[in-house]
Design goal:
Blueprint lengths: L3 E4 L2 E10 L1 E2 L2 E6 L10 E3 L6 H13 L4 E14 L6 E12 L11 E6 L2 E9 L13 H4 L8 E6 L1
Parallel strand pairs: 2-7, 6-10
Antiparallel strand pairs: 1-2, 2-5, 3-4, 4-9, 6-7, 8-9
């Protein structure tokens, strides 16, 4: 069971996201239901560590195994989701992923993966392009240029 619950028009999520970077580009994704780019990842399940969750989510979404290099950020966000219009309170752990043995670069600059019945489109976005794109999380549009050496905690309120 996902660690997520809804109360009236508000929703709490405990999520993990993968920061997959190469040559000043970040791997972002989008689907037919969302008008914006976002990062690979998903909700943490009960009895699952954040590390187990990000490995599972990446395997499900990209069909490749990736290793964790290190945690980067713990972000607490408050936002209204553009698709379902719910007010979110979200805790998300962001992990820098090691792609050295994955073969992901062989997939090209833009590629699709079928998850269930919905195709997911992945694209390598140049860091500078993030400022122009409809992209979440918003803090990453700036912070991607200054990847931290150590784990940090931040709060983002929209």
């Amino acid at each position: 069971m996902d660690i997520s619950f809804k109360v009236d028009n508000e929703k709490f999520n405990y999520r993990v996201c993968a920061i997959i970077v190469f040559n000043k580009k970040i791997l972002a994704m989008h689907d037919e239901r969302s008008p914006y780019y976002y990062l690979p990842g998903g909700r943490v399940k009960m009895e699952e560590t954040a590390e187990q969750a990000i490995i599972r989510e990446i395997k499900e979404e990209l069909n490749i195994p990736l290793k964790i290099s290190r945690p980067l950020w713990l972000v607490q966000s408050f936002f209204k989701e553009d698709v379902n219009k719910l007010d979110y309170h979200e805790l998300c752990l962001y992990f820098l992923m090691d792609i050295s043995e994955s073969g992901i670069l062989l997939k090209g600059d833009k590629f699709a993966v079928l998850e269930g019945k919905d195709p997911l489109t992945f694209e390598w976005l140049e860091f500078a392009r993030l400022k122009e794109e409809y992209f979440y999380p918003k803090f990453l549009k700036e912070d991607i240029f200054h990847l931290p050496e150590h784990f940090t905690i931040r709060t983002e309120i929209e």
